[in-house]
C-alpha cells in the first residue's frame, strides 16, 4: 500500500475537533496534511483554520468536499448531525472518522455503514476508550481466557458537576441525548468489546433530569466537564435550554446470559469517584482504571497490578492512537479495531435505554432490531 500523505478535512470545528482531531492529525505530518475545515458557523471555521494553520475554511461542508476533494474527513459535529456529513463525505470519495456515538439510532448507523460499503470507503467511529494501553491489555486477557466465563460487568462514568457548557450537548434537538451519548457510550462500548460483543437480549433503562435545568451558582470549569484544554470558540450557555438527561441508569441482559449495568451522569450528588468499571469472570476479574487483575493465588486471594507502557502525555490521547490506527488500516498494515457489527450492537443498546425510559418498561431485542 502506498505511503502517500492523506489530505484531511474537518467538518465541525467545536471542542472535539479543536482539541482532539486536529492535534492528532498535526502530530503526524509524515502521514497527513490538513487542507480544510468547515463549520456551520463559518467564523468558527475561520478561527480554527487560522489558529491551526489550515489553508481553507468553509461555512458549507458540501462545498468544501466538492472543491477540496479530501482523502479523509473527520466528522466532529453534534450527534444529530453526524449522519449527513458522513454520508456526504463517503459519497465524495473520502474515508471518514466519525465522532461517537456514530449517530442517534442503530438504524442510522446501519445506513451509514451500508453507504461506506457501497462506495468502497472506510468508516471509522472514534470509540477511543478502546485505544489505551489498559484497554488493550484487558482485551488481551479476556481473549486469552484469563477471566473464564465473563458473566457480569458494571461501569459508572459519572461527573459530580460536569455539564458541558461550551456547545449544544445539553440540547436534545442537536445532541439527541445527554451523558448516555457523551460518556456512557465510551464505557459501554469498551465493556462490550472486551466481553466479545454479545448481542443485546433486553434493556431496562431510566433517565433523569434533576439539576441540568437549574442555575446552582456553582464554580465549575470547562475541565470539569471534559474540555481540559479549554475551547477556542465557546457558545454562550443557558441552563434554560437544557432538555436532555443529566443522569441515567440501565440494566442490560445479554444473549449469553451475562449482565451489564450502567450508571452515568453529568450532575449528581455523589462522591467524585462514584464507581469503577469492572468485569467478573469465573477464573478472574478485571478492574479498569487503573487496570487490576483479581483472582486467587494458591490458598490466598490476590490482586495483581500491571506495569503498562506509558500513555501519551496529552489530552484525548485515545484520538491520537485512533488516527494512527486509521492510517495503518488504510495502508493495509492493521485490521480495523472498531467494527460495523460492534457499533450497531452498542447503538441498539443505547436505543434500548432511551426506549425503555420512554415506555417505562423493559424492552426486548426484537424491539431494537434494524
What is the CATH top level name of the largest domain? Alpha Beta
Mean pLDDT: 95
Low-pLDDT stretches are none
Percent in strands: 15-25%
Write down the oligomeric state: single chain
CATH homologous superfamily heading of the largest domain = Dihydrodipicolinate Reductase, domain 2
Largest sheet: 9 strands, mixed
Radius of gyration using CA atoms only: 20 Å
Kindly, what is the distance between the CA atoms of the first and last residues, rounded to a whole number of angstroms? Answer: 35 Å
Strand order, sheet with most strands: 14-13-12-11-7-10-9-8-15
Order of helices and strands: EHEHEHEHEHEHEHHEEEEEEEHHE
In summary, what is this structure?
The protein is α/β, with parallel strands linked by helices and 370 residues long.
Write up what this structure looks like.
By secondary structure, the protein is α/β, with parallel strands linked by helices. The protein has two domains: 6-129, NAD(P)-binding Rossmann-like Domain (Rossmann fold, 3-Layer(aba) Sandwich); 132-314 and 345-367, Dihydrodipicolinate Reductase, domain 2. Helix content is 32%, strand content 22%. It contains ten helices and 15 strands. The protein has helices at 15-26, 42-52, 61-68, 83-91, 106-119, 133-143, 172-175, 179-194, 317-330, 340-359; strands spanning 6-11, 32-38, 56-58, 72-75, 95-98, 123-125, 150-155, 200-208, 247-254, 259-265, 277-281, 285-288, 292-297, 300-305, 363-364. The chain has a nine-stranded mixed β-sheet with strand order 14-13-12-11-7-10-9-8-15, with helices on one face. Strands 3-2-1-4-5-6 form a six-stranded parallel β-sheet, with helices on both faces. Helix 4 runs parallel beside helix 5. It starts with 5 loop residues before the first strand and ends in a 6-residue tail after the last strand.
